[in-house]
Structures are given as structure tokens and as C-alpha cells.
Amino acid sequence: MSQKLNAPRGTADVLPGQAALRLAVEDAARELLEGAGYGRIETPTFEATELFARGVGAGTDIVEKEMYSFDDGGGRSLTLRPEGTAPVCRAYVEHGMHKLAAPVKLYYLESFFRAERPQAGRYRQFWQVGAEALGSDDPAVDAELIVLLHRLLTGLGAGGLRLRLSSLGTASARSEYREELIAYLHANESRLSETVRGRIERNPLRAFDSDDPETRRVMAAAPRLLDRLPSEDVAHFALVRELLDVCGVAYEIDTTLVRGLDYYTRTVFEFTSDDLGGGGQATVGAGGRYDGLVELLGGPPTPGVGWATGVERILLAAHTEPQAPSPPDLYVAHDGARVAAFKAACDARAAGLRVELEQAGRSLKGQLKHAERLNARFVAVVGDRDASVRDRLGGSEQTVALGELLAHVERARRP
Ligand code: HAM
Question: Which atom of ligand 1 lies closest to the CA of 310?
Fold first, then answer.
């Protein structure tokens, strides 16, 4: 026997019981988002590496450490998409969607790839449902998206949800604040952890994420970006909060919320679930505004806002268990009349019934046992001319001509 091969670390096969649960997430997302005017978009599994380096940011963990990049054989570097916002904005520019009525509302349901350390809720290939609205800077779009994500997660039964909300302001407000924060960190350098000290210039905002107790004490007194926002950003954020309030979506303002992607401006948010344990994998869904991204990718100045939520994390937070398949309406058994049985099963399927057919060489007795195991409602033992049909729910048993089989089952199924 040859040596067996397993799926790569951090990836997983989705078996039928699990697939049924995913389908429920997909159906709920599709219904909710299409009902709110979002149209489905699909982008390629791989893109030019440059798209993510430019869009997500060369200094982010995703671009620095987590991308699956490869040479396409012609000297071009391609990357398995680690996220969906940059590809959607690339497609928006490529297809001239700025000519469409704004906002252009798009959603996706695709798999993504990140070379992360695999653990519960953190995979190297995972699925996201994502939604993006391009072309409007109205705070109502931010609020609409947050309300939709809240509805999706609660509707699917994700437990222990919390919504953290903040505003990062526009890029110019942030760069002034950055200088102030860097000066503050330098002034307190001796009290900071080595990691935080090492990235003061590169990524000062990440200091708010530190677990080190002394660093946390320093950061508790640090200047806050939210207190430094210009009045337009303050007004935008106030309206987002007001709209969430009227819809009854509870949130906590978290001035330390730093997202791991560079494109964010103004509103940022994260839904965490207490049921997912601590750490980064407690985040079920997250997003925010990215008013500069389309322009950065060569398009006209275009505001945008969106989110993505991990399908596997929703299923973990909703404590779902693999589901048994739905039972067949009809099980077709036979004691040698295999052609007649095959035709009867084909006809019944064509009429819309869920049908199973003996295909593993079982004896008639074995077939009847199998029909019971499958919990089929009707069992038909098909001969060359007629069939004996048992209604396992109603208890009746009757022999009918083959041509009558379907009509008989349909009649008996009617309530
Ligand atoms: P993100 O926070 O990197 O944002 O990912 C969004 C969600 O994807 C996470 O909250 C999590 O549920 C899921 N996720 C991320 N990485 C993994 C992983 N390794 N394994 C399992 N699930 C994972 C984005 O991707 C942005 N594009 C969101 C966005 C859309 N912002 C604006 N528009």
C-alpha cells in the first residue's frame, strides 16, 4: 500500500454534514445582503502580488508574513488572495463601476489564504462572507453595513457577541496624531516592552495591542486618536453611532481598536465572540471605511466601506454540530429487477422526489434494513411489472402497477 497523504496543515476538508451547515450560512448571507441591494461579485483566486502590497500595506503582517506568493513562470509574482477588499476595489476600477449609481454595493462568498499558525478558528484556507459599498461617504452606509453584519451573526446564533467601534479619522488627521504618539512613546521608552520599543517608528498604534502590564499602564495615559479628530470626522462618527442606537445595536467605543490592514479611514469595527476564547481568533467579523483605497489602486477618488466575516468562526461561535442528511422520500429496492428499479428511481427524481436506490449489492432484506437506517418515508420493492410500496410513516402497504408508482406515492404524501 502507498503511504497515505493528508490535507496540508491549516486546511480542512468539508464533509457533507459540515457542508450543510455552511450552506445555511451562505443562504442566510445571500438572502440578507441581496435583500439590502448588494449584488454578488466573484474575483479570481489569485491576483498580482502588487495589489495586496499596495492595497493592504507593505508593512502589515498579512503582506510581510502571511501571503502565498509564487512566480507565474513568466517573471510575474502572483498571490493567493489573503483578503477581498483590495480585489473588489481592483475590479471596481477595472470595470469602470464609478459610472454606476452610487453606492455600488457588492458582496462575496469565497475562500482566502493566509500562512498563519494554524489553531482553532485560525486556518490557512478559510471562507469569508464579505460586503463592500463603494462611492458614498454617507455615515448611513457604515451604519447599514454594521446593522447587516449584526443581523447576520445573531440570526445564525453566534453566541457572546460584542461590537467594538472606533474612528481612525482621515489619513491626514491620523498622520498628525501618529507624530504625537511617537513622541509620547519615546518619552516613555524605558517603560515599554522590547517588542513595542522595536516598532515605535514603524507601527506606533500597535502599542495599544500589547499584553505587557507596564506597557499597558503607559498606554492607558497615552493621547487618544479619537480625541484628536477634526470636526468632520467627529460628526461622521457621531451619526454612525446615532444610527446604530436607533436600530438597537449595542456597541462599545474602543479607542485602542487597531485593525491589521493599512487601508482603513474613519469608522472601524470588530465583532468578537466570548465563546471563541481569547486572542485574535475571537474576532468573528470586522471591517471599516477605506476612503483612499480605490484611488490608491489607480481609480478616481472614491469612498468605500465594508466588512468580512469568517464562515468557520461563525460556525464555531454558533456551536453548530454536523447535521444528519435529510431522509429520502422514497427508497427503491429490488430483488433482481434492477433495470425496472433504476427507471423507477429516475422517474421519481425527475418528478422532484428525494430518492435513494439500491447500488451496493445488498440482499432484499439488507436493502429494507438500509431504507430503515436512512429513514426513508416510502420503500418500493420494484419488480418487472409492479411494485410493492410501504408507507413507513402511515404504516400502509400496497402493490401497484409500475406506471402507477409515482402517482401512488404523490397521493399518499399529500397531507
Ligand atoms: P480581517 O479582519 O483580516 O478583515 O478578516 C475578517 C474576518 O475573516 C475575521 O474577523 C475572521 O472571522 C476571518 N478570518 C481572518 N483570518 C482568518 C483565518 N486565518 N482563519 C479563519 N478565519 C479568518 C478583512 O479581511 C477585511 N478585508 C475586511 C473588510 C472588508 N474591511 C473592509 N471591507
Answer: 12
Residue whose CA lies nearest to ligand 1 atom number 21: 122
Helical packing angle, 231-246 and 139-155, nearest 10°:
40
Pocket of ligand 1 contains residue 114 by CB under 6 Å:
yes
How far apart CA 355 and CA 343 sit, in angstroms, is: 12
Whole-structure pTM over 0.70, yes or no?
yes
In the chain the domains, ranked by start, together with CATH numbers, are 16-170+230-317 (3.30.930.10), 330-413 (3.40.50.800)
Pocket of ligand 1 contains residue 116 by CB under 6 Å: yes
Q: What is the mean pLDDT of residues 2-15?
A: 95
C-alpha 84 – ligand 1 centre gap (Å): 9
Q: Is the per-residue pLDDT at 202 higher than 90?
A: no
Contacts of residue 240, defined as CB under 8 A and 6 or more positions apart, other chains included, come to 139, 142, 143, 146, 165, 167, 267
Q: Is the CB of 262 under 6 A from ligand 1?
A: no
pLDDT, one tens digit per residue, over 133-153 is: 999 999 999 999 999 999 999
